[in-house]
Design a protein that fits this description.
Layout lengths: L1 E5 L4 H12 L3 E6 L14 E4 L7 H8 L3 E4 L6 H6 L1 H21 L4 E7 L22 H20 L2 E7 L1 E3 L7 H10 L5 E3 L4 E2 L1 E3 H13 L4 E5 L5 E2 H12 L6 E3 L14 H7 L7 H17 L1
Parallel strand pairs: 1-2, 1-4, 2-3, 4-5, 5-6, 6-11, 7-10, 8-13
Antiparallel strand pairs: 9-12
Helix pairs in contact: 1-7, 4-5, 6-8, 6-10, 8-10
């Protein structure tokens, strides 16, 4: 079976492609390399350097005739979405529409879409379930939610089967700009990290568990919306303290107010995903954090 992966040279995409190849899927990789790195593409994987908003994307579908699509390409910065909402909309909504129209036209069996816990905003009830109130606080979250609605309507109108995966906070090696890797980078350089508030909580999920969820949702008969999370609530302050303990590096963090558009508390129920396609996270936060630290420590030493 052939799977087209958008955003394949990015952080999550790299792990998804590797996991697909390990399970003997044929992979077609698409990435415009705006944030992804070409060296992340596994050797001998068919790669197209292309923006998903371009009409040339049709040539990839025409030539490759993929059976499935895993759509990861996105503008993923909350902060950047607040500064440039038009660019955010073009990448996340119009890009997704391009994927949907060609998937329908070329008879793709199923699409897996990477969405976000940010669509829930600041919830009043925790843990968050898939039918919880939706209240996006940023243009990034709004563009992802809008894309979700187009995907659901495509399934209803055209029977284009889909799984919408609302990721909690994904982390791991190769990530650029995530809260854990940003804090870790400062610690390993002996610099004082900047912490925005610190009391806000997140549900951190390791990237290898996310890659497994993408594949298991793809091959499952299940469709719909699913939270992909560890279902564990951890504060940014606790993350900093854990990194400090594991690295042995002592610093004086600089505390600043919470930024506009940021969520105060977040933890997602993952029960539906576990029940629907027999997925569950296999990495504890501690083991995933240790693996991430070991990776970046090795990079700094070489």
């Amino acid at each position: 079976m052939k799977v087209l992966v958008t955003g394949a040279a990015g952080f999550i995409g790299t792990y998804v492609v590797q996991a697909l190849l390990k399970q003997q899927f044929t992979v077609v990789a698409v990435d415009n390399l705006s944030t992804g790195t070409k060296s992340n593409i596994v050797k001998d994987t068919r790669f197209y350097e292309l923006d998903i908003t371009e009409n040339d994307l049709e040539n990839v579908f025409l030539r490759e005739q993929p059976d499935y699509v895993i759509h990861l390409a996105a503008q993923s910065s909350v902060f950047n979405s607040m500064l440039k909402p038009m660019e955010d909309c073009q990448a996340n909504l119009l890009g997704t529409l391009n994927i949907l129209r060609f998937s329908k036209q070329y008879n793709v069996k199923k699409c897996v879409f990477a969405s976000t816990a940010a669509v829930y905003g600041n919830p009043s009830i925790l843990p968050i379930k898939e039918d919880s109130k939706l209240a996006p606080l940023s243009f990034y979250a709004l563009s992802k939610l809008s894309a979700e609605n187009y995907i659901l309507l495509y399934e209803k109108l055209f029977n284009l089967k889909s799984c919408i995966l609302r990721f909690s906070n994904v982390f791991g090696p190769l990530q650029a700009g995530g809260v854990i890797t940003s804090l870790l980078d400062r610690l390993l350089e002996g610099k004082d990290p900047v912490i925005f508030d610190g009391s806000q909580t997140r549900d951190f999920i390791y990237v290898k568990d996310v890659a497994a969820a993408c594949i298991q949702s793809l091959t499952s008969e299940s469709t719909g919306i699913f939270n992909i999370s560890s279902s564990t609530e951890i504060s940014i302050q606790q993350v900093f303290e854990g990194l400090t303990e594991l690295t042995g590096v002592r610093t004086n963090p600089i505390y600043q107010p919470l930024r506009e558009g940021e969520i105060e508390r977040s933890v997602l129920s993952n029960e539906k995903a576990i029940a629907s396609f027999e997925w569950q996270p296999t990495y504890s936060f501690a083991s995933a954090l240790e693996e991430t630290i070991n990776y970046y420590t090795h990079i700094k030493q070489t």
